[in-house]
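User: I'm curious whether this sequence folds into something compact or stays loose and floppy. Could you predict its structure so I can see for myself?
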Amino acid sequence: MNQVSLLATPLTAEVAKRLGFVNHIVEEAQLLKKSREVADAIVKNNQDLVLRYKAVINDVLKLDLGRTLSLEKKKALRT
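Assistant: Here's the prediction. I'll summarize afterward.
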C-alpha cells in the first residue's frame, strides 16, 4: 500500500479490489443499485454495533498498531 501511495500510479479496478481498497466493482449503470444494496445490508445490522465499529475505524486511522489493537479489544468487550 505504501508503494501505491508513494508512486501515485493509477490502479485498475481489479487491482484496487485485490489490494482491499474497494469491495465491489460494478458498471456505472449499476452503481446506485449496488450502493443501495450495501446501505440496506448495513441498516439491517445492529445499529449500536455499526456506530461503534464505525467509531473504531475512524479512531484506528489516527493510531499506531499497538494502540489500535488495544482500542479494538476495549470496544469489542463492551458488546
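Summary: The chain is about 65% helix and 0% strand. The CA atoms of residues 60 and 67 lie 8 Å apart.
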